[in-house]
Design a protein that fits this description.
This protein is mainly beta. The chain contains 2 helices and 6 strands; from the N terminus they run ββαβαβββ. Strand 4 and strand 5 form a beta hairpin. It is globular.
Length: 110
């Protein structure tokens, strides 16, 4: 429930991983969605770029199915303060409207 609710029934090919270690947490979601749904999910996000997306979405716990390079994502967004219960939290989204593929990741720590 990264977005505060269960995913709508029309979300396709949802993959997810969450890791919590001591005072740090991370999550990765990949799914297919309409551009309209993506627009609603990115409320509070600001336009970003590939470098910021990569910085906040990669690491030793990144799942094998996390392949935004192979899927050639074209649009990027970032939001600081994603998880209010952590002192530092950043979420990123990569999206390709034509393919309807979405990558979402967040990293948080105290």
């Amino acid at each position: 429930m990264e977005f505060g609710a269960l995913p709508p029934a029309f979300i396709k090919n949802l993959r997810a991983k969450q890791v919590v270690i001591r005072d740090a947490a991370g999550a990765w979601l990949k799914f297919e969605a309409t551009p309209e749904l993506v627009d609603s999910l990115r409320s509070g996000f600001v336009p970003s770029n590939r470098a910021i997306f990569d910085e906040h979405s990669r690491g030793e716990n990144t799942p094998r199915w996390w392949t935004p390079d192979a899927d050639q994502m074209t649009t990027f967004f970032v939001k600081d303060g994603w998880k209010k219960e952590f002192s530092h939290s950043t979420a990123v989204i990569a999206h390709d409207a034509g393919k309807r593929v979405v990558y979402f990741s967040h990293a948080a720590m105290d």
